[in-house]
Amino acid sequence: MLQSIHDKAKGLFAYIILIFISIPFALWGIQSYFEGGGKKLAAEVNGKEIPVRLYEQSLREKRQQLLQAFGGNVPPGYLDENLLRQEALAGLIREHLLAEELERYGYRIGDRQLARIIHEMPIFQRNGRFDKALYDRLLSSQRLSKAGFELQVRIQALRKQFRQGIAGSAFLPVAFKRDYLRLLDQRRSFDQGRIDPERFADRAEPSDEDIRAWYRSHRQDYLTPEQVRIEFVRLSQQKLAEAVKVSEEELRAAYEEQQDSLRTPERRHLRHILLKVDEKHPENAVRQRIEALRKQIHGLADFRRLAREQSEDPVSAPREGDLGVVEPGELEQALDRTAFSLPSGEVSRPIRTARGYELLMVESIQPSRQRSFEEVRTRLARELAEREAENRFLDLSDKLATLAYEVPDSLDDAAAAIGARVEKSDWFSREQGRGLAASPSVREAAFADEVLKERHNSELLELMPGEVVVLRIAEHRPPAERPLAEVRDDIRKLLRQRRMRELAKETGERLLTELRRGELGWSDLPGKGVALSSHEDVKRDDADTVPPAILERVFRMPRPQGEKASLAGLQADDGAFVLLRLRRVEDGKPSDPARARDLDTRYGALEYEAVLKSLEGKAEITVYKDNL
Amino acid sequence: MHFETEEQQVEAIKKWWAENGKSIIAGVVLGLAILFGWRGWVDWQERQAEAASEQFAEARKAFDSAQPAVVHDKAALLRKEYARTPYAPLATLLEARIDARDGKLEQAAEALIWVRDHAREPILQEVARLRLARVRVAQQQPDAALAELEPLADNGAWTSLVAEIRGDALRARGDLAGARQAYDRALLSAGGRAPRYLKMKRADLGDPEG
Asked: What is the ipTM of this complex?
């Protein structure tokens, strides 16, 4: 058939067909054919599309960052998937808006400026100067193309310019800074009158009826926790490794294969002489001294004698410069290089090290040799077993995951497929458990709707690298009411506490009103069972002497008017009611406004945040929730 | 049309060219001129922006190494030669910061007014307004400060910062109840990110007894 099309498709007819075929390419480009049709959008920002692919990538990066911040294991509750999604999308939208703003208003970094920025990056510098070879090597080792990297640097530099241009030019006028310091250094003198709740202990005992009534109306608070027992199948790479048998032939073959890497390193017995360079012994003088010293050495005997007499290394000098037997990489780099290139019995040239100038002599060389099969046998066996175990682990965990998913209402098939047993746990709750249930991720998985309500197998959980588990609910104990007898004492204590607090508050508020009306003087308070204390010149952050909540209240009280002190009262965290009398407010003395310099930074950050929000506010943003 | 011979055809083409050739050439030349002119204009703008960016980077460096005179020079140059780029207002904002630090409030205000009136980028105008309002408060001109904040009032992004400066202005005017209200609004809008200075200012006004 194709042949007949070909035959007929000549002349005008062929051109028409060709034109029709090329229209879609011209309009949508060839890409859409490779992407498999229309791409899904996460959002549209001022008409610019943000594909779901970008969003998902950003979400992955966010998760990765969180994982890294917690060292690989995020405690449950910290990974708020919804929040993460929101942040990922909001971040992308901001990036787009920012890019648009920068492009539109002519923020630019030219090639020359870009080069300067890259040249100033310490990572590409050697001896304080940009090193082109180092630059190329680092980029290729990170698999970065030069164009791609330079584009990234340019984007970062532009964003920095904008951020710094706004946040870095923010300032508060000096008058504000003085005002800030005036408030910051303010001191207040006040009196406290404490009404202790314990005072009302004998009036606070709840009746039996009170306790019963409380129990009836708060049943939800007196439940046994919901508990489950789970069945699980566990797969451990370490256990697999223990079970792997490595045959003699395999070991032999591995030994043959790896011969090169199974050599002992070359070892050298070294002696050295050190002349220190420090403030008293300048570089040049030491260099001349060591050159002179070097000329006096004509063999090992000279070297040992001079090391004992002249070396300034307190450890090795008494041992005639002996450094012992070393392997490559054990000494600092400059010494290491010479130590393993110097012929035996010769004196090295002076070597500049961190401590000063040193001379080296190689006393003897133990050459590198092939390790025997017997020497490396255990190590090889372990390596082979581990490698084999790793392969089997990957293979089996795949099988485990697949079968647990395909047969969701039993673990027997999954266990059989990997040759493991189904184990059973003890009872545990959402909050705590022992054994396997000590792991928060196991508890979280067991109480997930999919597992608890639907009674399906869980997904494959990674407990740690090389250890996975699949679980399902074996038994479930819903929360149950605890009998009154069991909780009676808890309720009694609780009600007593509450009543004592109430009484303290009632008394305190009554006294406060009487004080304000002038029916009562501050000095009458001790007679009413109130414990008084005075505090002079307390600063805002003197939380050692006064609890923070009280301090905060004191600094929110109106200033005393003339002789009339101002009054306030509050219930403290421990239940005591505290009466407060503010006598004096002393503002901070005008001091050096430079102390308030961080104020500029603080407000700069707030302004920049507002700038980004303002850009968002003006933009037309559509979020396609269904695609996320 | 139908031609008997090839000569006839060539003749016809020549004739047609004699009639229309000039206008076609003129059209092509004009088209190319517009195209290249446009490209040249765009290129020139890009080069201007890049040059301004470098000048601004130098101004920023001078600011960091405490050379205010250089910052002033660069800012003046940017305003003169590169006023259409964002770098002229950015450098001017930096100038305002230096002036304010040196206690030259009127000069700082002038710099901010320039940014407010000449920046092409609306967001920089907003920033300049906000800072100008603070300078007005510091200059004991609370009414001028309040007027400056007016256009920002409807922009939700600035709510907290604007309300805070409103509070400062009202406090300077002696309207403590109004200041209290403004600070409360600022605190509410800032949520957990309220600066300590704002909290202290609000606390210091106290709550009326009762």
From this structure: 0.88
